[in-house]
Each structure stands twice: as C-alpha cells, then as structure tokens.
Records
---
Amino acid sequence: MIPSLYVHVPFCLRKCNYCDFYSLPLSAAGDLFREYPRLLEKELTLWQSRIEPGSFSTVYFGGGTPSLLEPETIGHFLSLLKTEQAEITLEANPETLDAQRLSAFREAGVNRLSLGVQSFSPRFLEAMGRGHSPEQSRRAIRDARKAGFGNIGLDLIFGLPGQSLEDWAHELEEALALETEHISLYGLTISQDCPWGKAGLSPQNDDLQADMLELATEKLNRAGILQYEIANFARPGFASRHNRAYWRRENYLGLGPAAAGCIRNHRWNNVCDLPRWAAAVEKGELPLEGEELLSMDQVIAEAMFLGLRLLEGINCLDFAAQYGLDPRKRFKREISRMKKAGLLEEDENQLHLSRRGILLGDAVFAEFV
Ligand code: SF4
C-alpha cells in the first residue's frame, strides 16, 4: 500500500533570495507551465500501469508555488485518484490567493492549506525577495476561513541575517494572533548557489537559532500549539498526516521534477530538471534519476533517525513488529551514549528525544547513520 502522494509544482512568480528548492520563475518556464497538468497526469498513469497505488490517505501539492495552478486543474487531478477521507494539502503563497480562488480550491477538494508566510516584517520580506506583504498573509488566512478551511498552517523562517531574538518573538506573536491550526518553523540555511549565498550572507549562528527554537517552543506550547516534531507545531488533532507518514517511514510516491519516492527499501528521485522530466514523461518513461535499493541495516537506521524527529519518538515494540528487532538491542551502545549525554530518554517502551535532545537532534541522528 502507498498511503501518500507528493506532487511537486516547480513554478514560482519569482525566485526568493534564499531559495534552494527546485523551482523556476514563470518567465523561464515557457509552455511547460501550460503543459504541466497534462504531463503530471501522464506520469501518474505511468505509475498506475506499474503498481496499484490503491487509496491515498494524504496528497500534498508542494513546490514551488502550487497555488499558481488553477483550482479546476487541482480538482481534475484529484478526480483521478482514490482519496476518500484523505488529507489534501496545498502549499500556497499569499499573493496568489483571493477569496474566490480560495473557495474554488476548497471546492476542488483541498482541505488543508499551508501558507508560505515566512515573516510578518516588511523589512525581512523585502530582503528575502518575497512577493507579498504581511497584510496579504493576514487577509489570505481570513479569506481561507471564510472559504471553509478548518485546517490552516503557516510557515515561518528564523535565523534570518540581522534577525534578533526580539524580532523573532514579535514574529511568533503575529503568527499566534492568526489562530492557525499548524505552524512550521524553518531554521535558515543558505546554499552557495542562491542570491544570498552568492552575496556572502550567512544565517544567524547555531546558538541564536537554538535560542529562537526554544523561545518558539515555549510560546507556541503555552498557546496550545504543541510541538510534535522538532520544527512542527499543531493544535491537538492537526499534526500533518502527510509529514508524519515520512517520519514514520511509510511508503510514498512523488510526481514532478525533483520529487522523491520510497516503497519499502526502494528509493528514488525524479530528474531535477523540468525539460528533462517533461521529455521522459512524454516518451512514456518514468523520469527517474537516482534509484537505490537500501539494505535492511540502512532501512533500520533511517527508521530510527526519522522516527526520533517526532516528539513521541519510537515505540520499540511496534518497531520490533515491523523490522524484526528491538532497537534497544540493535543500538544498545548508541542509545546508552545518548542517554548518558542527556539527549535521549525512555519511558516504558517509548524511546524519544529529551528537551535538550530536541535542540541537538542532529547529534543524535548522526549516531544511527
Ligand atoms: S516561493 Fe518558495 S519555492 Fe518559490 S522561490 Fe520562494 S522559497 Fe523558493
């Protein structure tokens, strides 16, 4: 069974200055923007002729800026899938939305909106090269509520060049005032290839970023938006089912350039290039680039470090039932070292990060690679 489908939509109105995702500005996409829905449908058919995906419990349109697609296009694509009771998420940028489009996305079947707010400060939005104002973010959330969305998330970035802890506290207060069900936080990294990297800009240092995450955890938890993964917070019952499936290492299929897929120990990536992806799909070929058959050791290590990202951690009995071994025996030395360092804890059969481990997660995950 493949419970999750990711659909990458690699188009943006313009590129943000820090962006490292695979997406093209619309001006560079040419006819492929118009052709994209047809090609996605063809790629889906290629998979359906090879495997029986069954019913999806989550579908996630990510990007890029999926809200650049027409609501009818999303609706038509969803009509090709079995999605009864599914969580259907659309990533959206505020400047692409208005009340009418939001109602049409809701009618098309989207039931979860993930809004790329990133900041409420005009100064930082401008520096990032974002195309929206704080007021557009607020309006998009108000309009989404009126359109019937009962599950809205927003994304914020922390560690921006020049951002202080006080700036960040203000961002969190602005976000909380909007009363969304979900908030995702991204600690900024800057690759050498993006405009900020080329200009020699750096994110705020690790210590300040750790303080920012700690402050966010305190403020959001206090407001009832509870941390359920290192950088993700939700009101009870509103954790992202799609992302949870990744962290639980469940099977997923990815469509579109740069999308990834994983079925049991078979993992792959699609080519990270829109014209090459389109040419392969047009020829009736799956546009795969990197394919790996993981060993059982690799699968188990991956299940450990993904599962530990969730605050509830790993249930050792469930893990043993799924992988045929108790992680406490297989990783006895590593677990003991991490417990002594105060990074890992065990309650009953549940292995999970400690408060300190949440802030130093990478050090824990490295133990299992
Ligand atoms: S909107 Fe998102 S994907 Fe598009 S350029 Fe900006 S950060 Fe990248």
Note: The chain has two domains: 4-246, 313-368.
---
Amino acid sequence: MMNLPHQTNDSQMIQDDQTEAISQMKIGFIGAGNMAFGIAQGILTSGKVSPTNIIVSAPSMNNLPRFQERGVAITQVNEEVVERSAVVFLAIKPHLIQGVLYGISRCVTQQHIIVSMAAGVTIATLEELLPAKTRVIRMMPNLPCVLMEGALILTSGSCAGEKEETLLKNLLSPCGLVEAGPEHWIDAHTGLSGSGVAFVYVFAEALAEGAVKMGMPGALAQRIAAQTILVGSHAHLQYVPEYLN
Ligand SMILES: NC(=O)c1ccc[n+]([C@@H]2O[C@H](COP(=O)([O-])OP(=O)(O)OC[C@H]3O[C@@H](n4cnc5c(N)ncnc54)[C@H](OP(=O)(O)O)[C@@H]3O)[C@@H](O)[C@H]2O)c1
C-alpha cells in the first residue's frame, strides 16, 4: 500500500488497539441514502461491527427498511442516533447540514466523533455549527464504496487527529482504499475518484472498439477490455509505491 505521511508505526499500534474497540463501538448514520447504505454494508460485511451496534435515521420510511432487514436499528429522530452512538456519520445532502447540526448539537459531546461526507461542506463550517472542541472528521467517499471498491479520503478537524483517523481507516477499510491527508486533498480526490470512473468507461469503450474493428463481437470485446483494465489496475495498485514514494 502507498506509504502516506500519516502512516507511521504509532498509527499501526493504535490500529491494532482499536480493532477490538471497533467491535464494541456504537455507530450511527444520520441519513439512510445510497452512501449510508453502502458504507454500512461494507462495515457489516467485514463482520467488524454487529448490526445491533448500528443505528440509522431518516425522516421517512423510504430507505430505512433495507437497514432494518440487516438487523440495524432505525429511527426517525436524529438526536436518538447521536445519543446512542460514539461515531456519527452525517450522510445527508450538503444543503441539509446546517439544519441537521442545529437539531443535534445539544446532544453532541467531546466523546463523539462526527464524520461528515457532505460534498463541499468544510471542516471550518462543521466546527462552527457544532459545539466547541467537537472531534470532527470530513471524509469524501466515492460511489464504488457501495461495491466495497471505493476510494475514501479523510481529513481531521482541529480537535481530531491521528487516533481518530486511524480508527476511521480501520472501520472503513472494507469499503475500499482509505487514506488521510490535508483538507485540500478532498477536492482533488472528488475530481480524481468521482469523475475519474467516467474516463475509465470511455477508455474501455475505445479499447473494445479497436477489437470490434478487427472482427471481434462487441460484447466479448467489452468484457475483455474491462478485464484488461481490472488487471492493469491491480498491478498499478501493487507497484505504485515503488516509483512514487
Ligand atoms: N452518492 C455519492 O456518490 C456520493 C459521493 C460522495 C459524497 N456523497 C455525499 O454523501 C451524502 C449523502 O449522499 P447520498 O447519495 O447517500 O444521498 P441520498 O441517497 O439522497 O440520501 C440522503 C438521505 O438523507 C435523508 N435525509 C433527508 N433529510 C434528512 C434529515 N433532516 N435528517 C436526517 N436524514 C435526512 C434522506 O431521507 P429519506 O430516506 O427519508 O429520503 C436520505 O435517506 C451527500 O452529502 C453527498 O454529498 C455522495
């Protein structure tokens, strides 16, 4: 794996200590949409956390039943999620952040870790809307997280740091590649991993088109192009540290 600045021996020790703690940890999601479900699925599939230690809220019953089917507690009251969780993921649309934080703030303590995935909402804004000294993490997932093949970047607020980042990396690792870094990486990551997938489709189409022009059936050419990109990606992930670090 890439040896980024936050990856130290200390963080490895914290990670080992935290693996046990994570299995006992209470985790909440405010918002029950695609990203909350994808991340919850990753965490549950890994077996690191029992569904009985997870609670999720949303105003309607549109999305909650699929969580309930997996044994996760559901509620339509956001404050209940905060009161029953140590780590709270804010999985709501960015324009709702202000109102939702206003509603839950009185329940937030320094024991919580509040993790926002709302695009474009900065650490400064989150800290301004939450009580002083709240431990805040901003994270940016991408859609492939729902397939557990995502790429996530985390960045810490002023009262969070390596300990919280290592815990989140450990918790979220089943969802894909998880790295921590400065906040300005988030925008770069959004372009790279959010929009980047679309360029891979274009590249796959182009590769397949060459084979079709040489007489191969289209569907087969597409499958071989996809498989070729998959193998190339695995090799790239494996060898990238040797020439970049
Ligand atoms: N999807 C992506 O690829 C992606 C990538 C990176 C970042 N993100 C970020 O992830 C966040 C969630 O995105 P998403 O795609 O999961 O959105 P989504 O599928 O539209 O889900 C939004 C959820 O928020 C719930 N909600 C609405 N108002 C609420 C309130 N007042 N309190 C609590 N929950 C409320 C909705 O409730 P109902 O179930 O009742 O409708 C729904 O469950 C966004 O901030 C987005 O910027 C998404």
Note: Confidence is low (pLDDT under 50) at residues 1-8.
